[in-house]
Amino acid sequence: MARPIAKPTYALKSSQRHYPEQHSYPIGPVELLSAIPSQQSNPSQAPLFFAHGGFGCAEIWILYMQFVESGIPCYAVSYRGHGKSWYPGFWQLCFMRRHSMAEDLTAGVKHVEKIEGERRGVQEKVRVIPEAHSTGGALSQYALSRGMIKVHSYCMFAAVPGFGSFGCYQFWALAAIPNFYYRLFHPKYLMATTKQIYDAFFTPWTPTPVVLSLERLLSPYESTLRPMRGLFKFVTGPDVLSSITGWTSRPSTSGNKDSEARQVSQNLSVLADEHDVLCTRTILEDAAMRYRAVFFRMVEMGKLDGVKESDLVSGKEKGVRFRVVGCGASYAESCGVGEGGCGDLGVVRAVVGRFEES
Questions:
Q1: Residues 6+ apart with CB under 8 A from 178
Q2: How far apart (Å, rounded) are the C-alpha atoms in residues 315 and 327?
Q3: C-alpha angle with apex 135: 153 to 81, nearest 5 degrees?
Q4: Does the N-terminal or the C-terminal CB of the chain have fewer CB atoms within 10 Å?
């Protein structure tokens, strides 16, 4: 089936489109956008890897890929059936397994590791920092929990948590069944009109052109099995954190020379949008608390390299960081599709800066 063409809404300097080879599923190409700094990257700077949510695509992240201007390599993937990746048939994609799409995400991550290793002239793998949104967050947590990928750090960017996601769809509870029948069981039954997209993903003061810009980028159909499989808990916590490799601890910079306190890296960040009606603050704060409890337990058991139990003197946020950001659009990715987006690009920059310090 022909791929829909969407015009990019922001021009990136030195951007490229790759189609990495699928490691075990050579049916069609998977789109990978890249923005690589003109200067050689700092070897300690992990590249950003953006993972979109349902119906999204790599181009939705274009504005966020401006981090390249600060010397940070940026990549964004489109799973099969999205963006300019290959499109399976309608029914094939509707019943596509979550693991199959996780293979696309994995192929993108491994291709970035290869590109960055060659570009930097190093033998060891260059681990990425996934910035995953909505069901892309659930997909990346699945890949991490199954050991499909290893990453330096991980950011849940208004992402569906892996501990169960019934609450994320509460907004659609009353509209789901009548729309499902009215749209004849089409996967896009809750996103068939501009108003549906506006109500679910944007605040009332978001300019309509921003909504239309996002709508043009959405895929025509989607997997129905993938979000359904995420309704129930599919991660334990340790299975995700053990696939994050950038944990470190170093002397605190508090200024007290006699202090034995250590500064533990926060390699898992959970960002919530205060206006989001799907992945709400309450849901994501609960996910952050769960991961934080798991982090402390794993450190106490000696199961995380780079951090010891003696490093956890104080500080409830050690290891896992939770932040609520203010955004002009509840759909976090959509901030990248027009000038009417939001100001949380600076918040993400702060998160990246914190990862750099790690």
A1: none
A2: 28
A3: 110
A4: N
By the 8 A CB rule, do 203 and 216 touch? no
Distance from chain centroid for Cα 267 = 14
For the chain, the first-to-last Cα distance in angstroms comes to 45
Nearest CA to 319 out of 352, 296, 300, 301 is that of 296
Helices (H), 95-134: 98-120
Max avg pLDDT among 156-160, 201-205, 211-215, 248-252: 156-160
| Dihedral sign of CA atoms 87, 92, 98, 102 in order | negative
Task: Tell me the pLDDT tens digit for each residue of 275-295.
Answer: 888 999 999 999 999 999 999
Token pair of 45 as six digits:
């700077």
Strand partners, 132: 51, 156
Q: Is the distance from CB of 188 to CB of 220 less than 8 angstroms?
A: yes
Please tell me the distance from the alpha carbon of residue 2 to that of residue 8, in angstroms, as a whole number.
18
144-147 contact pairs (CB < 8 A, 24+): 144/235, 144/239, 144/240, 144/243, 144/244, 145/234, 145/235, 145/236, 145/239, 145/240, 145/243, 146/99, 146/102, 146/239, 147/239, 147/243
Other Cβ atoms within 10 Å of 309 Cβ, number: 11
Q: How far apart are CA 273 and CA 327, in angstroms?
A: 6
How do beta strands 154-159 and 129-134 pair?
parallel
| Strand 262-264 with 249-251, pairing | antiparallel
Q: What was the pLDDT predicted at 286?
A: 97
User: What is the value of pTM for the model shown?
Assistant: 0.85
Cα-flanking dihedrals φ and ψ of residue 228, to 5°? -65, -40
Helix (H) or strand (E) holding 132: strand 129-134
273: which DSSP letter? E
Alpha-helical (H) ranges within 276-358 are 281-300, 345-357
**Alpha-carbon distance 165 to 188, whole Å?**
19
Q: Which pLDDT score, from 0 to 100, does residue 175 have?
A: 81
- Domain assignments of the chain as residue spans, ordered by start: 15-357
CATH code for residues 15-357: 3.40.50.1820
